[in-house]
Design a protein that fits this description.
Elements lengths: L1 H14 L12 E7 L17 E5 L8 E6 L8 H8 L12 E4 L17 E5 L11 E4 L4 E4 L1 H12 L9 E6 L2 H15 L6 E7 L14 H13 L7 H6 L9 H4 L7 E6 L3 H8 L11 H5 L6 H17 L1 H6 L4 E5 L10 H4 L6 E2 L2 E2 H9 L6 E3 L15
Parallel strand pairs: 3-5, 3-8, 8-9, 9-10, 10-11, 11-14
Antiparallel strand pairs: 1-2, 1-4, 2-5, 6-7, 12-13
């Protein structure tokens, strides 16, 4: 499906970029840990390889604190795209890099990551194509695909529990893009694994994908997710109160419908002009066959007046969807800026630096830290484009 290819290309380009302002000798490379006993739980990547993660141990005051970061990387929603994905690093740990650069929220440097630098930090590798939520398989006698995202999540957690996660005092479940969506899907479940007296919270970075019509008035993203949920057996793992309340249960894969059932403190980090959603939900290629939006997609300054108004409408829809959370969630946090970007927590430039994006002169790292440690209420909403001069517009 062409839509899926576009998703993968965009997210790969954004997630594999290396922070520009960290010298090579300062980069933290963390080796992969393969979950050897995952097969006993039926946990396999699309191609049948074993799941994996990268763990960098905490130290000092952070020894008993844990930060888990879901890797992002798009989705697959039909057999063709999933077979294609199974032969890439997005569907097989055999094809993944065996070391990952930890930066931004995963950095071990207090100057780059002041609140979480000394925590145990884990990056969960993404190889199932359904935001760690599926539980099915395809087997026609000659070809086999495993849709075991839910079991991958379970297997990694059970591998980490005896390594100290089971005794955590503080924990933060986070993720970027498809991994940010996974934070919504697994936040409640995460708390069940940890001690009752632990401080457990969740963060989604660029994972608040909207259920919205595109410029041709089609529900392109809704159709995509419907096929994904059906193929990968996701519905059984969605929030039960959510699925029982909607005529279309698969819609609970969208964060806007699942959010109200999450009681664990949650922080939503998102751009109001998220480039992934701009390019693939608001203006997918199927709704712009003649390429009228091509220049606008590459450079916001090239957008005409009508296109800017369409983008402002998308921002208004996002803020309207978040209105109840903003107004009534006492333990929730938000940082909705007006940058053309996608994923801002793993890149050092956007997470915490001298020229990082700011709202009310507060960086993303400061906003998340203030929220997690309850230093002050953090619900920041940027003014509309093009008012923010601190933005890093990261357009692929």
């Amino acid at each position: 499906m062409n839509l899926n290819i576009g998703f993968v290309v965009v997210v790969l380009a954004l997630l594999t970029s290396v922070p520009l302002r960290i010298n090579a000798q300062e980069r933290l490379l963390v080796p992969m840990t393969v979950v050897r006993n995952a097969s006993a739980l039926g946990a396999f990547c699309l191609d049948g390889s074993l799941p994996a993660y990268h763990l960098h141990r905490g130290f000092g005051a952070g020894t008993n604190n844990w930060l888990l970061q879901f890797e992002g990387g798009g989705w697959c929603n039909d057999l063709a795209s999933c077979f294609e994905r199974a032969n890439t690093r997005r569907g097989s740990t055999r094809l993944m890099t065996k070391f990952e650069v930890f930066s931004g929220i995963l950095s071990n440097n207090a100057s780059f990551n002041p609140d979480f630098y000394n925590w145990n930090r884990v990056k969960l590798r993404y190889c199932d194509g359904a935001s760690f939520a599926g539980d099915a398989e395809f087997d026609n006698g000659t070809s086999l695909l495993y849709f075991r995202g839910q079991k991958i999540w379970d297997a990694i957690i059970h591998d980490l529990l005896p390594k100290g996660l089971g005794c955590a005092r503080k924990a933060l479940l986070s993720g970027c893009s498809a991994g940010g969506l996974a934070s919504f899907l697994h936040c409640q479940n995460f708390t069940n694994y940890l001690p009752e007296n632990a401080s457990v919270k969740c963060l989604s970075d660029a994972g608040f994908f909207l259920d919205k019509r595109d410029i041709s008035l089609n529900y392109t993203m809704r159709s995509f997710y419907k096929n994904l949920v059906s193929l990968q057996g996701v519905e059984q793992n969605l929030e039960k109160n959510c699925t029982s309340s909607l005529k279309l249960p698969y819609l609970c894969f969208f964060p806007q419908y699942a959010l109200k059932y999450i009681t664990t403190p949650f922080f939503i980090l998102n751009s109001a002009y998220d480039v992934f959603q701009f390019h693939h939900i608001l203006v997918p290629s199927s709704s712009d066959l003649h390429g009228h939006w091509n220049h606008c997609k590459l450079n916001p300054a090239a957008c005409d007046e009508t296109q800017i108004e369409t983008l402002q409408g998308f921002r208004r829809d996002m803020l309207l969807t978040l209105r109840v959370f903003f107004k009534y969630s006492r333990r929730g946090g938000m940082f909705i800026n007006s940058c053309f970007a996608h994923c801002q927590s793993e890149s050092q430039d956007t997470w915490f630096g001298d020229d990082s994006p700011r709202i009310q002169n507060k960086t993303i790292a400061e906003a998340v830290g203030d929220w997690y440690f309850s230093r002050r209420v953090t619900k920041e909403i940027d003014c509309a484009y093009p008012c923010d001069s601190t933005c890093h517009n990261l357009i692929p």
